[in-house]
Structures are given as structure tokens and as C-alpha cells.
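Appendix B, record 7
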Amino acid sequence: MSLDGSTSIAVFLERLASREATPGGGAASGLMLAIGAAQLAMVLRYSVGRKGSAGFDATFQMWVDRSDKIARLGVQLMVEDQEAYAAYRDAKASGNEQALKDASARCLLVPQTMITLAEELGRAAEVFGPAVNPWMRSDFRVAMASLRAAISGAGAIARVNIDAADADAIVQLNTKLKSAIGQIDRVVEQIK
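C-alpha cells (predicted):
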């Protein structure tokens, strides 16, 4: 049974803690992406229109909209991760090599997408972070921590899904993870 955006957090956590293959780490990473993006959207909403932020209002609003979209994508990726794993499991059981190759690629694409989206928000936050509502700085840091968790979790899932023989793909993933986590860490450092 695949859990979706209409599933309560309580049910999701109950299923995550169960002895079921899904949801697992990929879905949890998607949830962290959704939480980080939603938290960032909230911070930005509280920052729009504040005295002294007029020069950033258009930027804040643009990133409110993008953060809302990424939050929805995070939920969608939670579902896609569960579906990708189910397709992988079915392909492996069938012995169909092409189906297994396709399912493996999908299992890698989902966490890679999570990493890319979280890094996108981190790059943007580096620009507007210093101008956010000062009363929202702790929430801003929580958003960044959630995005960092999404990157770390998705990276762990991606590593499992990369063919160990593909050394180039492993190097590329490690470089991407280092860059994405470094991006988030720089943002957190600039917000005291």
C-alpha cells in the first residue's frame, strides 16, 4: 500500500516504523523536503511587506511560490519513491532484465530529484536569508535543517541504488551531495 499526500502524519509514521518495505528512507526524505520547503514558505510569508524588506519583497514572493511548489513535489516524491521501489521489487521477482534496469534507474532518479530541489532552495536562501524577518530566524534554521536532512537521506538512498561498478556515478553523486550540504551549511552559518 503506497501512502500519499492525503495520509496523516500519524499513519505515515506508523507505517514507516512497521516491518514493511515502504514507506522507507526515500519517502521519509521526501517528507523532509516537503517540510523544509513549507517551513521556508512560511518564513518568507512573514517576511514580505516588513519594514526594511521592501527591496526583497518581489524575491520573497517568488520564492514563496516556488517553495510551495517544492513542498507539493516533496509529497509527490514520497509517493514516487514507494512506487519506484515496488516496481523494482516486481522487476527483480520477474527476472526481466530490462524492467529491472528501468526500475533501478527510477529508484535513483527520485532521490536525485530530492537533492536537486533541496539544493535549489538552499541557493536561493543564501541570497535572501539575511533579509528574512528577524523574528523568523529560528524557523528559517529549522527549514534549512529539514532540507539538509532531505539531502542526507536522499543521498543515502541514491548510494544504495547506484551500481557499485559505476565509479563515475558514485563520484558524481558524492560531489553533488558535498555541494548541496555545503550550500545549506553556508546558509545556516550566515543566519545567527
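Remarks on this record: Residues 44 and 60 are 6 Å apart (CA to CA). The longest helix spans residues 57-94.
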